[in-house]
Amino acid sequence: MNKPARNTLSLVAIALLAAAVLAACGPGGKAKGPAPAAPAATEAKTAQPPVLAPLPPMGFNTWNKFGCDVDEKLIRETADAMVETGMLEAGYKYLVIDDCWQVDRAADGRIIADPQRFPSGMKALADYVHGKGLLFGIYSDIGPKTCAGRPGAAGHFDLDAATYAEWGVDYIKVDWCNCDDLDAPAEYARFRGALDRAGRPIVLSICEWGRNDPWTWAKGVGQLWRTTADIGDNWASVVWIIGANSRLADAAGPGHWNDPDMLEVGNGGMTFDEYKTHFSLWAVMAAPLMAGNDLRAMSAETRSILLNKEVIAVDQDPLGVQGRVIIERGYGGQVWMKPLADGSRAVAFVNYSDRELAQYVRWAQIGIPAGPAKVRDLWAREDMGVHSDTGKHYNERFEVKVPSHGVVLVRIWPGA
Ligand code: GLA
Fold first, then answer.
1. Residue 50 has what pLDDT?
2. How far apart are CA 412 and CA 403, in angstroms?
């Protein structure tokens, strides 16, 4: 499936190699005769493009809060807010305009941004976003029309990719509406090929809602792929998505992430505890963290969630492992574990029930040696001291109380 992308990369590598050999052997060059094999191999290695999205992408997307009500004022103000609130500093760097920015195509096929809503044009907007130190993202659809009925990419993959590269697009979410008869792996690979030919590194966010099992083919095509239908700003939706996405941990890793959809934190439909559970589980599942609320008007509670650097560090851990459910308690309790690069473990105790639950874990269950381990509560931002587990005594288990629909998220380092 990912042949076109790979072929393009090999062609680029060969071209760079040829250029290097020419530079070394051409007129004025000192080397004579065939280039030695070893340096050529080194050149080929250094010519590899960097992995796009080695960590789960972080940013903001307009859809969850604003739907089709997008314009350049909102994007500029959001860019300003991302800097002023500390979102950029915390790692949220992609500012993505979702559906409804586009209205038509010109006679030559070029896509046209809504001139009323984006009078300065997309290039100027991308420049503004880049000027703030952010990266710029946009949205399209594999089919002839987007989900909101705007022009899709069908028939124009190369022209669109070239246009977006010219505008300075760094990230594109590509949807799957009006594509029923199409072959998803082939279509997205063709789109990736067009992006590669356009010559700008652009993250491809595949959005076919898990319909065609993208976790089996999208690695090497897109950097992230949606695994479910759209999220809603309610607890039932979050619980349902966690269940669906939790089964796909094997498919995730640096440069290829399961995407359980954008965040609803701060949009008003859930309690503080529910939003903390939503954010914690996205972090433990190494999910992309795309804020979906109004960043210009965040409450202190919303900021305390989206800007919790210790929780973000769990999501952005360089090991890039998607955490898993390690204990399923029938009465609504669940324990998750995500191994982290420094040998510590993120452990999330989740409570889906309607009353407070006491929950525990043994060190053997999280793969650390029996004995002392340091524990830190990532929401309270407090050290919880050293806890010991000899591996023998039941009453040495590490235990916490978890509020209804809430979470206790800790990080555990083996040793005293
Ligand atoms: C689909 C996607 C959403 C959003 C809308 C836009 O439903 O899954 O995330 O992009 O389309 O129309």
1. 76
2. 21
